[in-house]
Design brief:
alpha/beta, 3-stranded antiparallel sheet, 8 strands, 33% helix
Length: 213
């Protein structure tokens, strides 16, 4: 299941609440359990679910674990209700196509982790519009270490939290833009090298590893 948690975090508490409910509705359709040769003739059951936190390439790797914790929190209640918490459920930050690389920059005497990529033409950051050709370094912002900081206001006082979110957002301000796919390098023989990714191999191993052994 692909989950764009970053977009929800960037849009505020109401978007987080909507995404949490949407994921609960989707997971409620799953039939958890272990498949056998007999049950396979009657109905197929879900014995594992991968919750993929997408756009990992929009963050420095130092924040990937925070993205995974936020995504895990989004699905935790629904997973418990259908009995999929534990070994059958895995949350992983990944990017099927990595469009950026990582770097560090000096800013006011501090070294900031940034991502470097080529924004798609028309993308804007701080009033600057990109032409689709120029690379830039972006500090996407800091996700909180404790995901509960994003949810506690909505959980305790949903109405007041949503009303206040327009003026005093409870979530950090993040900078996300769409990036062009990377240019694939060629070998001397003219062969294209593989598309860079983040943890796509680990995702395939979790879902299919034992079936291919």
């Amino acid at each position: 299941m692909l989950v764009d948690a970053l977009q929800a975090v960037n849009r505020g508490t109401e978007a987080l609440q909507d995404l949490e409910q949407a994921l609960a509705d989707v997971l409620a359709c799953f039939r958890p359990g272990v498949n056998s040769w007999l049950t396979s003739f009657v109905t197929r059951k879900i014995d594992r679910v991968l919750i993929a936190a997408t756009k990992a390439d929009h963050l420095h790797h130092e924040s990937h674990d925070r993205l995974e914790r936020i995504t895990a929190r989004l699905v935790s209640r629904a997973a418990e209700r259908i009995g999929m918490s534990g070994a059958g459920l895995e949350v992983m930050a990944l990017a099927s196509v990595r469009a950026t690389r990582e770097a560090t920059v000096d800013h006011d005497g501090h070294r900031l982790p940034v991502i470097v990529g080529t924004p798609i033409a028309g993308e804007k950051i701080n009033g600057e519009t990109f032409d689709g050709e120029r690379k830039t370094a972006i500090f996407p912002g800091d996700l909180p270490e404790d995901p509960e900081l994003l949810f506690e206001a909505v959980d305790r006082h949903p109405a007041s939290a949503l009303a206040a979110s327009a003026t005093e957002p409870a979530v950090p301000e993040l900078n996300f833009v769409r990036f062009r796919p990377p240019h694939l390098e060629e070998t001397r023989g003219g062969l294209k090298l593989s598309v860079p990714h983040i943890r796509l191999d680990r995702a395939m191993q979790f879902l299919l590893g034992d079936r291919l052994a």
